[in-house]
Design brief:
CATH architecture of the largest domain: 3-Layer(aba) Sandwich
Structural class: alpha/beta
Radius of gyration: 24 Å
Helix content: 25-40%
CATH superfamily of the largest domain: P-loop containing nucleotide triphosphate hydrolases
CATH topology of the largest domain: Rossmann fold
Number of helices: 14
CATH class of the largest domain: Alpha Beta
Number of domains: 2
Order of helices and strands: HHEHEHEHEHEHHEHEEHEHEHEEHEHEEE
Length: 442
């Protein structure tokens, strides 16, 4: 029960009004230390309820001090407009019985209107890095008095090239008293460096490792001969699978538009979402899918983070994502909050090695599936290595005289430097078992 947390009665009233009953594992683990004012680094699955895990402690701090609104007191930084809008709604829902005011600043909206909002000094500012930097450059926002800084989906912000913007923004929030960093993946060295720079004596909560995908989601692959064959398979799946709503991911905007056009021509109610679409079109696409007027959304990875659409239970990877982390974010759109979902990847010969690498990275073996009506000639490589990748014939290198060169390296391999160790709390999957401490190497 949320009453176990030392939250203000007005927040508990909002939680009850919203029919939040049992806190999720990430909320059980993160809310108490966040209420104590500790800096946190939290690694938790997409769809695990981590927005409430940082919004509730943040609002509790703002209620507790009850100071007049003279400055922006907290900043929530996120990678995409869609995630920012969704987070703002959560802030507004949880603060409905308080006098806390919030605002949003993202790209695609009128700059002057945003400047007017910033002059009103909202208690909670939700923003994306790029547009916030523009307001900083124009002098329309002052972050010097920010008390709490939240970096949500920090790994995605790094993937999108916002490292320098994040660094500048955190430096300008120099007087902050608490920093909360949330991510769906451990993020590697880049995220570790950011955490070391912005967090002070942090507690690292790891509620899942990267290979722990949602238990309610099945993962399948279907082999295809070429792009046109993939389009046939996608249309067959949309026509024959049982689902409420579906999202199809492509790697390029051109392919997204092409597939969207073919689906609409085939009578499907679909929308397309990618970076070339303006804010109005992007909002329309998401709203139509959420409301049920449209069942199919075709998207690039701009939609792989932050979308929380009820009833979205089918994900099709028309193109394989370029990394295991991106696979996690894509399929995280389904099987959320304990629900069931199906993730299907369409695999041509040039996708096989990438798919094998993702399987190995996630320590998963995807279910192989064949659609009899559309069975192609390609069913995978004839020979595979122990790693699962296709085995090819290597050509031996020759020097100018035609002599075969040895493949052995003369120099000994370089030793990797020892990585720093970090104290981490690993939380059990149910969130109720005692927290354990262990030393981990990322």
């Amino acid at each position: 029960m949320f009453s176990q947390f030392a939250l203000h009665e007005r927040l508990l009233k909002a939680v009850a009004e919203l029919k939040f009953v049992e806190p999720t594992p990430v909320q059980v683990a993160a809310i108490p230390p966040a209420l104590e004012g500790r800096d946190l680094r939290v690694t938790a699955q997409t769809g695990s309820g981590k927005t409430a895990a940082f919004v509730l402690p943040l609002l509790n701090r703002l209620i507790g001090e009850a100071k007049p609104r003279e400055r922006i007191r907290s900043l929530i930084l996120l990678p995409t407009r869609e995630l920012a809008q969704q987070t703002l709604k959560e802030v507004e829902r949880f603060s409905q019985f308080t006098f806390i005011k919030s605002g949003i600043v993202t790209g695609g909206e009128d700059f002057k209107e945003q400047a007017a909002l910033l002059r009103k000094l909202p208690d909670v500012l939700v923003s994306t890095p790029g547009r916030l930097i523009e307001h900083l450059n124009s002098g329309t926002v002052d972050l010097r008095e920010v008390e709490v800084l939240v970096l949500d989906e920090a790994d995605r912000m790094l993937d999108m090239g916002f490292a320098e913007d994040m660094q500048r923004i955190t430096e300008l929030c120099a007087n902050r008293q608490q920093t909360l960093l949330f991510s769906a993946t451990t993020g590697g060295n880049a995220l570790r460096e950011v955490a070391n720079n912005v967090l002070r004596d942090p507690l690292h909560l790891r509620l899942n490792s990267i290979d722990q995908l949602s238990e309610g989601t099945r993962h399948q692959i279907i082999t295809a001969d070429h792009a046109e064959h993939k389009e046939q398979l996608a249309r067959w799946l949309l026509a024959n699978e049982t689902y409420q709503k579906a999202i199809i991911f492509t790697n390029t905007r051109v392919q997204a538009d092409r597939l969207y056009g073919h689906l609409v021509a085939g009578g499907y109610k679909a929308f397309v979402l990618h970076g070339d679409k303006d804010q109005k079109d992007r909002k329309l696409a998401i709203d139509r899918v959420k409301q049920g007027g449209t069942k199919v959304l075709v998207a690039t990875d701009v939609a792989a983070r932050g979308l929380d659409i009820e009833g979205l239970d089918l994900v099709i990877n028309f193109d394989m994502p370029r990394s295991g982390d991106e696979y996690v974010h894509r399929v995280g759109r389904t099987g959320r909050a304990g629900g069931e979902g199906l993730a299907i990847s369409l695999i041509c010969h040039n996708d096989w090695n990438l798919m094998s690498s993702i399987e190995r990275y996630l320590k998963q073996s995807f279910e192989r599936r064949t659609i009899k009506e559309l069975k192609g000639t390609y069913s995978g490589p004839k020979k595979v290595k122990a790693s699962g990748k296709a085995a090819g014939v290597k050509k031996k290198k020759t020097d100018k005289k035609g002599d075969k060169k040895t493949t052995a390296k003369a120099a000994a391999p370089k030793r990797r430097p020892n990585k720093p160790r970090e104290e981490t709390r690993v939380v059990s999957s149910d969130g109720l078992a005692p927290l354990k401490r262990r030393k981990t190497e990322e």
